[in-house]
Amino acid sequence: MKHFNFKNLFTAITLVAALSACKKDRIVEPIDIPAERAGVYILNQGNINANNSTLTYFNYATQSSTSDIFSAVNGTKLGDTGNDIKIYGSKMYIVVNVSSTIEVVDPKTTKSIKRISMLNGTAARQPRYIVFNKNKAFISSYDGTVAVLDTASLAIEKYITVGRNPEQMVISNNKLYVANSGGLDFGNPDKTVSVINLSTLTETKKVEVVANPTSIGADSYGHVYVLSNGDYKSIAAGLTIINNATDAVTLTSADLAGGYGSSIVNNGDYIYYISASNGILVYNTKTQKVEKENFITDNTAITSPFNIAYDDINQQLFVMDAKNYATNGQLFAFGKDGKLVKGYPITTGITPGAVVFVNK
Q1: Which tens digit of pLDDT belongs to each residue from 51-88?
Q2: Which SUPFAM superfamilies match (predicted)?
Q3: Which of 148, 220, 227, 318 has its CA 20 to 30 A from that of 265?
């Protein structure tokens, strides 16, 4: 009868346990692969009531453009006056103002997923801008509402009443700030920013700012920036700064007025926007001072700067040039040094008004 050597057996078990423990303790660190851009979509507004909005796609790998990629892929026009475009999750949202639709597409293929009608009975709500928070999209419309859209079902859950003719929006400190322009009531603009609680989805207050606010942005220091156009006669255009903790106005300045409809884009400690003199103003959000009157350093001439965007991956500032608002415009890109990036400008459609960057 064979006898077991318990000493050897115990040694073997101990060794296996030790090896197993080593395997369990070995932590494989995830590899952080930075996102890489595939290209940029340019939303061209076209002309109001001409039904000629287009979507241009510029492919970074081939350095080539498709001038009307939405129509090419879907066999139908995008609509009348495309106003805003954003990518959120796996979907791209295109706000088409005069057509009163939200076009939801696959950003990789530009294939339409759903066209959402923005009507109140038979009346057009005229959507303007879109922002996102968690599983909700918020859409401002000229009828004085902000729609709440579920990004999974693509169903509108409710409408929040705000001020007259709301324009751009920004989320800061778990609140949605909405610029109420009143711009369609010429000579009698609105002069408020609605504050919406994102937990209750209700308007909690209105903050008074310079008349006819259209553009709005925020920084990481608790400031909300509002660009207003004034009433084009007795009330000057200007910038209002709101404290996002108290919603109190901390600064109102006509010297910091911006160009009409320019987005306020954020890059670390800086915000950029088109100034009243058509330069790209650089404002230091930490020191609360203008750092540069114009980001562009190489004297690149831009005829009619219409809007801007910032690519935080490639660290490039994009400027949309509407030219004469009747023929094709151009898209410019500038590096960190303020100099034009090689290969730009590229040709766009009529009145390029918004861009969005898509990753590989």
Answers
A1: 999 999 999 999 999 999 999 999 999 999 999 999 99
A2: 3-carboxy-cis,cis-mucoante lactonizing enzyme
A3: 148
Q: Which tokens is 25 given?
A: 């303790």
Neighbours of 286 (CB within 10 A): 11
Whether the pTM exceeds 0.85: the reply is: yes
At 73 the three-state DSSP class reads helix
Contacts of 188 (CB under 8 A, 6+ apart): 182, 231
The pair of three-digit structure tokens given for residue 152, joined into one six-digit string? 């999974």
Q: What are phi and psi of 199, to 5 degrees?
A: -80, -40
Q: One-letter amino acid identity for 294? A: N
What digits encode the pLDDT tens for the residues 125-161? Answer: 999 999 999 999 999 999 999 999 999 999 999 999 9
* DSSP code, position 236: P
| 3 φ/ψ angles, rounded to the nearest 5 degrees | -105, 140
3-state secondary structure (DSSP) of residue 353: strand
Q: In terms of pLDDT, which residue wins out, 179 or 29?
A: 179
Of the candidate ranges 26-35, 47-56, 137-146, 338-347, the one whose mean pLDDT is the lowest: 26-35
Domains in the chain, please, with CATH?
167-295 (2.130.10.10)
Q: At 275, is the secondary structure helix, strand, or coil?
A: strand
